[in-house]
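User: Just a sanity check before I run the rest of the batch. Below are the structure tokens for the first item. I only need the designed sequence back.
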């Protein structure tokens, strides 16, 4: 975070943009009692500090990617970072996390169908050295997905 401290205005700007990433700066300014230029500068600073990203997120099920799976991977101890980096470069992998518990890494895989998932699990993962074991759970339905963080 480079020593950047969020004040209450920054937090409110982030909250509003989490609700609607396309909310005009003027609307945010009016809601917070700030000048539009102040909001614009604060958003630019939050983005440059890496504290805020504004992106469009598609629902995989609605864009033809019908198979979503969570895969846990047990990895050779000295290879965790390298395996995470390789997994991060694969187009099917949407999320990579180093974790504690039963698995060293947890990934989210999004593909068109079960055949593509099988190909990913059998062929693509076998090309990555250091993976000892995997456990896969197919997501049947997403009950909640909230990308906003409460601050």
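Assistant: Here's the designed sequence for the first item:
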């Amino acid at each position: 975070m480079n020593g950047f401290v969020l004040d209450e205005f920054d937090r409110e700007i982030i909250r509003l943009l989490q609700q609607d990433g396309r909310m005009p700066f003027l609307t945010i300014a009016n809601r917070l009692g700030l000048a539009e230029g102040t909001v614009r500068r604060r958003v630019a600073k939050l983005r440059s500090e890496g504290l805020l990203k504004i992106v469009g997120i598609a629902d995989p099920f609605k864009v033809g990617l019908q198979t979503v799976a969570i895969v846990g991977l047990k990895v050779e101890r000295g290879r965790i970072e390298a395996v995470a980096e390789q997994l991060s470069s694969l187009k099917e992998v949407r999320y990579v996390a180093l974790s504690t518990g039963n698995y060293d890494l947890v990934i989210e895989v999004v593909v068109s169908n079960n055949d593509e998932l099988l190909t990913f699990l059998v062929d693509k993962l076998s090309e990555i050295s250091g993976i000892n074991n995997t456990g896969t759970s197919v997501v049947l339905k997403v009950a909640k997905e909230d990308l906003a963080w409460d601050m």
